[in-house]
Amino acid sequence: MKDLVSRDLDAIWHPYTQMKTATLPIPIVKGEGVYLYKENGEKLIDAISSWWVNIHGHSHPYIAQKAFEQLQTLEHVIFAGFTHPQAVKLAENLLSILPKNQQKIFFSDNGSTAVEVALKMCLQYWYNKGEQRQKILAFKNAYHGDTFGAMAVSGRSAWTAPFDNLLFDVEFIDLPSEENLENLKSKISNLKSDMACFIFEPLIQGSGGMLMYEAQYLDELMAHCQQEKVLTIADEVMTGFGRTGKLFATDHTQHKADIMCFSKGLTGGTMALGITSCTQEIYDAFLSDDKMKTLFHGHSFTANPVACAVANASFDILMQPETIQNIQRIEKKHQAFKAEIQDHPKLKDVRQTGTIIALEWNTDGTSYFHSIRDTLYQFFLDQDLILRPLGNIIYIMPPYCISNEDLDYIYTQIKKALSQF
Ligand SMILES: *Cc1c(COP(=O)(O)O)cnc(C)c1O
User: Fold this and answer.
1) Disulfide check for 66: which of 71, 313, 375, 388 has CB 3.0–4.6 Å away?
2) DSSP, residue by residue, 269-301
3) Please, what are the averages of pLDDT over each run of 10 residues along the chain (421 residues)?
4) What three-state secondary structure class fits 349?
5) Which residues are registered as beta bridge partners of 386?
6) What values do phi and psi take at 171, rounded to 5?
7) For position 366, what pLDDT does the model report?
8) Which residues lie across from 276 on neighbouring strands?
9) Which atom of ligand 1 lies at the shortest distance from residue 239's CA?
10) pLDDT digits (tens, 9 = 90+) for 188-242
11) CA 243–ligand 1 middle distance (angstroms)
12) Considering only CA atoms, which of 151, 156, 257 is closest in space to residue 202?
């Protein structure tokens, strides 16, 4: 029998991977807490939460137990015309911690589908009301997923280039700041009669390079959208469930979005599940004796009972005081590390929000394809550390259960890299 990597190469096409030049995939056979284990028993620190999904550590025994129990009870049921206890419990759990204006929960499969649903809710909201509003507003450098609608509202980049002609028109604006806020507001006012909605990643643009901006200016933009009756969609797929130091990034703002999107940490990173929540007003716009006003959207695995059970288990852990303390502990450690290195001559910028810290290497050009990326990626792997740079930007986004010792180890390796590259 061939080894695992050879069998992988024979059969598998990996995501976001140039298969011709990629380094060999590393087989992982076990996960526990913040560690991932290789075949030979060596462990890696997962400092990026396995593509930003894991919040409570790998193979969490409580989550595993709840998944097992659910698998023995009900593994799946069609979600049109039927319901089940785990979906109802999850909807109630989420509504208990979401902003009060969020009143209804719609299930789908992942972050991209959560965004697709949000866009369809907004566009059809206006359609159902008989108003011609079809334009969408988004931030430059946004990332909202890889399906076509989600790609369309994402910034145009190397990732979208082959499809750019096919993506619907979106109005892109800069991130808000003290200087440009009034400009952005008047732009929105000028476009408002065509504008269906404004979609944004609150506080942090993840894939765009961990670009951070201030809650205060987002708040003012949201207030302005409300005033102009432009619907707002907070894509909390990455920021949700504690990442920014509060349960949700929009907990940092006074004004609340009409629609919110969740995935990634929703199940503690254990299973794929997407959720789009909305206000009563959005929901009511689809209530009618006219069947044409129905939201015709659903996936085979909508509200899968095992995924919902796992999300409920993750919710239980999230609500424990210890989890909130861990989030605050990581935040403090990151802040101290930032203070220590922010003036380093090799760094262009160090930024931190909640449990995420990002360091931007001082390189010529900031492309996602910058060669420093591969150098740093390999360097950290050699130190038994998974840090996966976005071009010249490295970031730490750990599961909340990471120890102070492991955080210190990561900081030390980063300082080593700073002295070496
Ligand atoms: C990852 C991400 C998505 C897409 O989620 P998938 O589950 O990968 O489809 C959407 N929006 C944001 C902000 C993300 O970080």
Assistant:
1) 313
2) TSS--EEEEE-HHHHHTT--SSGGGS-----TT
3) 95 97 96 97 98 98 98 98 98 98 98 98 98 96 98 96 96 98 96 95 98 98 97 98 98 98 98 98 98 97 98 98 98 98 97 98 76 94 97 97 98 97 90
4) strand
5) 46
6) -90, 115
7) 57
8) 106, 261
9) 13
10) 999 989 999 999 999 999 999 999 999 999 999 999 999 999 999 999 999 999 9
11) 14
12) 257
Q: Are the C-beta atoms of 199 and 223 separated by less than 8 Å? A: no
Break the chain into its structural domains and give their ranges: 65-318, 323-421
Q: How far apart (Å, rounded) are the C-alpha atoms in residues 89 and 127?
A: 32
- The kind and range of the H/E element at 30 are strand 28-32
Q: What's the rounded Cα separation, in Å, for the pair 23 and 372?
A: 15
**Catalytic status, residue 143:** yes
Residues 6+ apart with CB under 8 A from 174: 139, 140, 180, 184
Catalytic one of 264, 333, 395, 411: 264
128: left (phi over 0), alpha (psi -120 to 50) or beta: alpha
| pLDDT, position 364 | 77
Instruction: Select which of 46, 109, 219, 235 is catalytic.
Output: 235
Residue among 16, 48, 112 to mutate when testing ligand 1 (max atoms within 8 A of CB): 112
Contact 34, 399 (CB under 8 A): yes
User: Whose CA is closest to atom 7 on ligand 1?
Assistant: 111
CA–CA distances in Å: residue 341 to residues 243, 334, 358, 361, 380: 22, 11, 11, 12, 18
Q: Is 235 a catalytic residue?
A: yes
Gap between the Cα atoms of 58 and 33, Å rounded: 5
What pTM value is reported for the model? 0.98
Verify whether residue 16 is a known catalytic residue.
yes
Return the CATH number of 323-421, one of 3.50.50.60, 3.40.190.10, 3.90.950.10, 3.90.1150.10: 3.90.1150.10
Q: How far is the CA of 78 from the centre of ligand 1 (A)?
A: 25
Structural tokens at position 242: 């504690």
Q: Which atom of ligand 1 is nearest to the CA of 111?
A: 5
Assign domain 65-318 one CATH number from 3.40.50.2000, 3.40.47.10, 3.40.50.880, 3.40.640.10: 3.40.640.10
pLDDT tens by residue, 299-334: 999 999 999 999 999 999 999 999 999 999 999 999
